[in-house]
Structures are given as C-alpha cells and as structure tokens.
Specification:
Low-confidence stretches: none
CATH architecture of the largest domain: Orthogonal Bundle
Distance between the termini: 46 Å
Shape: elongated
Strand content: 5-15%
Radius of gyration: 26 Å
Largest sheet: 6 strands, mixed
Structural class: alpha+beta
CATH class of the largest domain: Mainly Alpha
Number of domains: 2
Strand order of the largest sheet: 8-4-7-5-6-11
Number of strands: 11
Length: about 375
C-alpha cells in the first residue's frame, strides 16, 4: 500500500478513487508589499508558481481560458514550503497552493499574504489500482465511512489542520513573538524538569506560557509570582527559595504538577488524569475534588474530564458549592486554563516538528538556477 495527498482527478487512467476524505480549496497567496491581489485579473503579469500534478495547476489551466495571456511556472521537484519560501524571498510574486497548506505553513512565512480562492474545491482521496477488483476499494471506503461516522476523521482534521484556529484564539503575533524571543531562554530548563518529572517538556512550557507568558518576574494581584506562578505555600512545599529564579520556578512548578497528578485517585487515567491535574494546579486540589463530587451528583462520571469540566463552573453557584467541602471557587477559570494549555501545547509541538524542515530550507544553497526547477506554462496563442 502507498499513501499520498492526491487530488481526485476523474481522468486519471488505471485508478479508482475512494470516497472524499477532505475538501481542498485552491488559494492564491502573494508577497506582502504587492498591491492587493483580489481577483483573477490581478494575476496576469506576475511571477506566478505552483506545483505540477497537485490539482492547483488544473485551476490555473481553467483560468487561462478566460485570461489567455496568463502564464506561470510549475514544478514537480518542490514542496509547498519551498514554494512559499520563494514567494517570501521575492523569487515569485505569488503562488497557488491549497488553503489548508497555507494555514499549516503561514507561521513560518509572515510576509506571505492570503489572496483569494481560485476555482472550485477538489476532493482529497486515496487511490487504488483499477485492475485488481473492487475488494480493496470497498474496504477503504468502509474504513473511511467509519472514521467519519465515529468522529475520528473530524478530530484528525482538527488536530493537523486546525492550528490556524488555535493561533487566532491565543493571539498570533504575541504567541509567535514569545515563542521565538523568550522560550529559547528556558527550553533547557523545561527539558531538565521534564526529565526529572516524566512530563513532555513542551507540556511544561505550555503551562509556563499560560501562567506568565514565560516571564520570570510576573506577579499577579494576589501575590502569585514567577514563571510558573507559584504561591508562597506551594514554593515552600517544593523547596523554592526564590520564585523569580526561572530555574527554581520551572523545577518547582513541574514537581508540583507531578505531585498533584500522583495524588489523584487511581481510577482517573490517561488524558483525564493529566487534565484534572492541570485544573488542580490552577484552582487547587480541594476544589477539583468538589467538582468531581458535583459531577457525580449530576449523574456524571467523576473520573472523566468531560464531566468534571462541566461541573467546575458550578462551584460559583450557591446551589452547588454549598454542598461541597471547600465552598466557592471561580470554577470557570480552570476550564479555560486547561483549554488554553492544550492549545499552546499543540502549537509548540507543531512548531518544533516543523522547525527542522524550515531550517533546512534556510540553509539550502541558493546558487542553483531557480528556472531549472520549473516548467514554464506559456500564454495561449492569440
């Protein structure tokens, strides 16, 4: 078996396509500083590029029928990131890629702007040989249908193509600026704390960003202080002498999160256990236990984060917090707190996975003649 991001093209010989997996919308992107690229006529006369046999070239061919003077370059040797790098550097004025590809890569190319959708969406599908019967095709379609019906496909699309939404939520420019300017100062400290506490260092970094935006001198109105925003009692419990010392704060915060997670009942497992530990880091273990009690009173499962998450805001209501041991708490805050950390964590993982690829792009030799990588599609003869 082989797999690739293949657009469904009906005239492909020897191939049967499965049902559609996702829709891929061709998109014009262009270098910041150019006059706005708002409509197809604006593409005429530009240094325009795309990838051959990827589906986007078909959108350009269709457009060329209305604009015969349109010409472009296409390549089967480049990746999407390399194409966007050429737009960023000025080698190309604009490019045609798919919308989800732009959203995945725009973090690394701040000077590449979104233009407009070009043509109709294409379907992403799997392809199987047409000469070997229909058994494999039917099995693949059944598998994809099950993924769609049980929600797994939607989750996968959100996980791998939903980062743009995460960034819009947390503040794109601030997060990316801090990711580049602040996190490198503390990465080794997070990694050491992660080794000591058996967490992923990127998760600890996400907690640190939620707490202080990686500012070791951060102070809250209630006197919580430092990069991991430890209270005085927590700092004393963890042996942290100076809460504004980044190394001590990260180490103490990681050990405190580990101690909370270890104290939770054994019946709480997997991600449910992690999310509840993070919520308790914010609101306190006692209030988390109260929320678990409320979840149970409401017919939910106190060991599932989904049910405890729904119960936490009820700690703000007298009807419910009067039935608990620790009373009132701003229970909506830990819900947002955990949600934010999960989003930061996903974004940090994505950026770390991608950095090596883009470092290689930056280090690639530039002496090679760019034209050798492209085929020129000429205008239609008048």
């Amino acid at each position: 078996l082989g797999a690739a991001a293949l657009p469904l093209l009906a005239d492909s010989p020897g191939i049967h396509y499965t049902r559609s997996i996702i829709q891929m919308q061709p998109l014009v992107v262009y270098r910041r500083g150019l006059n706005s690229i708002d409509e197809p006529a604006d593409l005429v006369g530009l240094e325009l590029g795309t990838l051959s046999e990827a589906g986007t070239s078909q959108a350009l061919l269709a457009l060329q029928r209305d604009y015969p003077s349109l010409t472009w370059k296409e390549s089967h040797e480049l990746e999407v990131a390399e194409l966007m790098a050429r737009v960023e550097s000025g080698t190309l004025d604009a490019a045609i890629i798919f919308d989800h590809q732009f959203r995945l890569n725009r973090l690394f190319f701040p000077n590449v702007e979104r233009g407009f959708f070009l043509g109709e969406p294409l379907s992403l599908a799997w392809a199987v040989p047409s000469g070997r019967g229909l058994g494999l095709l039917e099995a693949a379609n059944q598998f994809l249908q099950e993924l769609q019906e049980n929600g797994t496909l939607e989750q996968l699309v959100s996980r791998y193509f939903g980062h743009d939404d995460y960034l819009e939520y947390v503040g794109t420019r601030t997060f990316l600026a801090h990711l580049d300017e602040r996190l490198p100062n503390y990465t080794e400290l997070f990694k050491q704390a992660a080794r000591d506490t058996n967490f992923d260092w990127k998760l600890l970094a996400a907690v640190g960003y939620q707490e202080s935006h990686w500012d070791p001198n951060a102070v809250s109105p209630t006197g919580v202080r430092g990069l991991m925003m430890l209270t005085n009692p927590t700092a004393s419990e963890m042996g942290v002498a100076d809460r504004t010392d980044a190394a001590q704060s990260i180490d103490g915060g990681a050990r405190y999160l580990r101690s909370i997670k270890d104290r939770l009942p054994d019946s709480i497992t997997g991600d449910d256990r992690l999310y509840m530990a993070m919520a308790a880091y914010n609101v306190g273990l006692g209030h988390l236990y109260d929320a678990r009690k409320i979840a149970e009173l409401r017919g939910g499962d106190p060991d599932r984060w989904q049910d405890v998450r729904a119960a936490l805001p009820l700690l703000q209501e007298r009807e419910w917090h009067s039935q608990t041991r620790h009373g009132y708490a701003r229970g909506g805050e830990p819900v947002i707190y955990v949600r934010n950390i999960r989003r930061y964590y996903e974004m940090i993982k994505y950026v770390e996975r991608s950095r090596q690829q883009f470092f290689q792009l930056e280090q690639a030799p530039t002496s090679e003649e760019p034209l050798l990588l492209f085929d020129i599609v000429p205008p239609i003869d008048q």
